[in-house]
Amino acid sequence: VINQPDSVGLACDLVQHGIPLPAYNYNSLPNHPNYFLGALAGSPCDTLTSLASESFISKQLNVFPNPNDGLFTLGFNAQKDVGVLEIFDSMGRMVYEDKVAQWSQYKKVDITALPMGIYLCRIAWGKSVAGVKILKE
Known about the structure:
This protein is mainly β. It has strands spanning 55-56, 61-64, 71-76, 83-88, 94-100, 106-110, 117-125, 128-136. It has no helices and 8 strands. A hairpin with a 5-residue loop joins strand 4 (83-88) and strand 5.
């Protein structure tokens, strides 16, 4: 509780734990589980699963310029398959979709009709996937 909120520094008369909270750990540190332990070998209760069904090529998709005004170019390594370009808004909704020709290394994109914000661009070539964040100003 800050008893004197208009005062500066120690003169504000701060009282730590001035309001009792109805919880078991209101006066101590909470008990957070350690998610970095990994799988326990031979355990029937293990709930860890692998989501690595697709190979994610994170460093092979470049966008320039970034940030941009809605007109930008994607650069990537040539792939033997036809790709699918998808752009998602910050709420996870797909707002743009287009095809990427096989053996191409660049794709010009125009999202000037979309509002300013952060978008996730994803290209999938079969089981290979690449993604990058885009900032539209």
